[in-house]
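The data are quoted verbatim for reference:
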Amino acid sequence: MTYSPSNQPRQQMNERPYYNDPRERYRKEEPYHDRQDRHNDGSYNNDRRNAPQRNWQDHSQPDQRKRKNYGKQNNFRRNTRPDKNTERKLNKIYFIALLPNAAVGKEVIRLKQEFAQLYGPVAALKAMPHISIQVPFTAHPGLERELSLALTEFAASQQPFEVFLNGFGFQPQPDKRVIYIQVEKTPPIVNLHLQLIYFLRKEFGFSEMLARKRFTPHITLAFKDLDEDQFADAWPDYESRPFNAAFRVNNMYLLRHNGLSWEVLQKCPLGANTPH
């Protein structure tokens, strides 16, 4: 039943008729979305029957006005575009490395454990012995297959080579204090690193800052939780300490962080395209 004074019951004298309240009359006769529906001639359509039906979740309506807090009241997101923060949370961390053989790997782990027992830092124990040839980077897991296939193809065009470990080195910067096993910069390992960074820049758009030419091959003994006092105590013991080992590199590895530790995602054999 539509409103008119004739068909409404008489109000008590001490009761204020709702149609005399301007706010109530305004709310009854001119709904919010009807008042926004303006004709081309400048007039407004206040007829509820002719008013277009609005879908507040459809943001393609050109003349639509959002009410304050409407999205909270109706439990939907007004912004339907992908959330950049959500996309970043989906990204994982990767890096590319060479791994020593079992014998050298066991000796490196023994040295890490010895260092942790003597001086305290334990962060390096969480990572397997490795030589980084591309520093860690973030990417969406959806790119894993493409990246794995591309790196396998790249590695197939390279040749196996020997790696030589010789003594210990350090990086003394307060924010990146590291003690490591030195890897000799022979032409094969330097060339592999150089070819890899050019490949990543060209095929995957890595920046020069991310895929950088500066390269100091090493196997880390202690980092991150190595404080100034621990470094001062440890380095004199390792500065002149001899250590020599060698192993043959037949594979390159793509590793992924699973939230707790690093795991091998793809093994990329070197020289697979070389005829035997």
The beta strands are 92-98, 131-139, 161-171, 178-183, 218-222, 244-249, 251-257, 262-269. Confidence is low (pLDDT under 50) at residues 51-81. Residues 90-269 form a domain with the Cyclic Phosphodiesterase; Chain: A, fold (CATH 3.90.1140.10). The chain has two domains: 19-81, 90-269.
